[in-house]
Design brief:
Radius of gyration: 13 Å
Helix content: 25-40%
Number of helices: 3
Structural class: alpha+beta
Low-confidence stretches: none
Strand order of the largest sheet: 1-2
Order of helices and strands: EHHHE
Shape: elongated
Strand content: 5-15%
Length: 69
């Protein structure tokens, strides 16, 4: 089984945390921003497609550089 591990994504839930929290989430990422929801589509489609048919037990981090390594 594979998984997608997103970082902070611009959603109603993250916006509800307030501007200070949103700024903190942005600052924590190497890209210094929060992802747009549509940026998770590509990695999800990859994992759901035949292109990943020989990949097993992996976590695809789509977090803008939040977690190193």
């Amino acid at each position: 089984m594979n998984a997608l591990a997103p970082g902070a994504v611009d959603t109603d839930m993250t916006r509800a945390t307030g501007p200070d929290s949103m700024a903190g989430m942005s600052a924590a990422s190497l890209q210094r921003r929060i992802a747009h929801a549509d940026e998770m589509v590509g990695p999800a489609l990859f994992l759901a497609s035949d292109a990943s048919s020989f990949i097993t037990g992996q976590v695809i981090k789509a977090d803008g550089g939040l977690v190193a390594g």
